[in-house]
Design brief:
alpha/beta, 5-stranded antiparallel β-sheet, two-stranded parallel sheet, 10 helices, extended
Length: 311
């Protein structure tokens, strides 16, 4: 065979070898991709199963939550809710030898509820209006912003005043939304209202909530944060607030009358206060595998003085 012929055979063999190597690489890549795809599918299914398991674990704690909230007052007296109450403590419920379900219960009555700005008859609550105005004044913000909140919540479409805002005002501002004419459901919603923004909301956030299930104006003096206490009346000041915090830490107020007798700043009967909370936000968490499941509940006292799930 001539050298030219041998060279041609060698080139052909090299080409075949190259094709084989490329084919092997492609097949290996396809196999790897398929294996990785299957591995991802297995991982995804495993996570979904773990999430379902975690949520089942979390929901299993609901009866215990209701039991804790519905347990009678020690000594058989009137119910008193405070930061020392059983429900206010971190609760861990064993699931098995290694896992626990974690429960956090927070009463809604500790905060100023934005939805109490309108009472059950659709009338503006001057008590809540003044509390919100005090909160804004404390942060050196305009109290005029409260008027637009009332317009957002009330059922009608009539602007309350020059600082109010209904559908036409939001359209004029170029907003892609209009007032809901119903209760607020989150504090994020407050930032959408004319005259408000995220910074304003963050400044008064420690004292407020947006709960659509409980719209009573009463504030629980045993659980309210300092910011909410300071907004209860014009006579309140940091010294009085500190005294309230110290007294209730050593011994929670057993009644509103007891508290009023101690502090002249809150003696007026027109200031709605309570020592008993009617609504709670509950967060139940559980972990299965590496997945954490969370169940959130709204619980409210019904007409039979029993706590039931409303959301």
């Amino acid at each position: 065979m001539s050298w030219g012929g041998r060279s041609q055979v060698g080139n052909q063999q090299g080409m075949v070898l190259l094709i084989v190597l490329v084919s092997i690489a492609l097949i290996s890549s396809l196999i790897y991709s398929r294996v990785e795809g299957q591995r991802f599918q297995i991982y995804r299914v495993e996570n979904e199963l773990n999430l379902q398991q975690a949520q089942i674990m979390a929901r299993s704690a609901i009866p215990e939550v209701l039991r804790v909230l519905n347990q009678p007052q020690e000594g058989g007296g009137s119910r008193v809710d405070s930061l020392e109450a059983a429900w206010a403590q971190p609760l861990e419920i064993p699931w098995d030898r290694e896992q626990v379900v974690e429960v956090s219960i927070i009463d809604v009555s500790r905060w100023i509820n934005l939805n109490s700005l309108m009472d059950s008859s659709g009338t503006l609550s001057t008590v809540t209006e003044q509390r919100l105005q005090r909160l804004l004044e404390q942060q050196e913000l305009s109290i005029e912003a409260v008027e637009a909140v009332a317009d957002w919540i009330d059922a009608d479409s009539e602007r309350r005043g020059i600082h109010g805002a209904e559908k036409l005002e939001y359209q004029a501002l170029g907003a892609a939304y209009v007032p809901t004419n119903g209760p607020l459901h989150t504090l994020h919603e407050l930032a959408l209202i004319k005259g408000w923004d995220e910074e304003m909301v963050s400044l008064i956030r420690p004292a407020i909530t947006a709960n659509a299930h409980c719209t009573q104006a009463e504030i629980n003096i045993n659980t309210a944060p300092p910011e909410a206490l300071l907004a209860l009346s014009d006579e309140m000041n940091p010294v009085v607030v500190e005294s309230i915090l110290e007294l209730r830490e050593s011994s929670p107020f057993q009644s509103v009358d007891e508290m009023r007798s101690e502090f002249a700043e809150l003696s007026a009967q027109s200031i709605p206060l309570t020592t008993e909370s009617d609504c709670y936000n509950v967060k139940i968490s559980a972990t299965a595998g590496k997945v954490r499941g969370v169940v959130k509940l709204a619980i409210k006292k019904n007409g039979n003085n029993r706590f039931v799930i409303v959301e």
